[in-house]
Amino acid sequence: MQLGVIADDFTGATDIASFLVRNGMPTVQLNGVPTRDLPLTSEAVVISLKTRSCPAEMAVSQSLAALSWLQAQGCQQFYFKYCSTFDSTAQGNIGPVLDALLAELGETRTVISPALPVNGRTVYQGYLFVGEQLLNESGMRHHPVTPMEDAHLGRLIERQGRGKAALIAWPIVARSPPRWRQSTIRRCAMWCSTPSANRICSPRAWRCGR
């Protein structure tokens, strides 16, 4: 099994599962963490949790349980699926879960890219847009559980996570993949951080993945 996805809600899990299947990757979606091994033959598994707005400690515990199960199934790569509008507060849950997953995997950095251009969510110069509006100028500003009062991903993740964020801006993403990787490595080494990648059109997502 190549890819294990940990999604913070059912809708997000369904979205990413459908995208994977549509792009030729056989995928199984599971509701919650299984209590036993399963004889799966798919290339990807998506585990749907309910951790978007629960207490951060619970979100971390359930996400780590999902990671442990996916590792036991032989997954080689892992993806944390959170909302494309980055639904969270200064207490989490995106930052605490990312920190916990990185620590468990023995990693120190990851790429944050919530953009989903097909649904009008794009990132430019570190700012998240909903359609033509900045995140904090959209209806998400008045969300009853996770009011989004800032659109800058670096600031959002630094408030709730342990790392420092470095921007990988559009001119870098638009370069050839080797130069993109080199620039990313330099920024990660300089900041020892969680970089935020700009996304304004879907084909660039393949460069992020590589």
From TrEMBL:
GO function term, MF aspect, one: kinase activity
* Gene3D superfamilies xrefs: Putative sugar-binding, N-terminal domain
Name the keywords, alphabetized.
Kinase, Plasmid, Transferase
InterPro entries named in the record: 4-carb_acid_sugar_kinase_N (IPR010737), 4-carb_acid_sugar_kinase_N_sf (IPR037051)
Keyword Protein transport assigned to the entry: answer is no
Record-annotated Four-carbon acid sugar kinase N-terminal domain positions: 3-182
This chain belongs to which protein, by name? 3-oxo-tetronate kinase
Its lineage opens with: Bacteria, Pseudomonadati, Pseudomonadota, Gammaproteobacteria, Enterobacterales
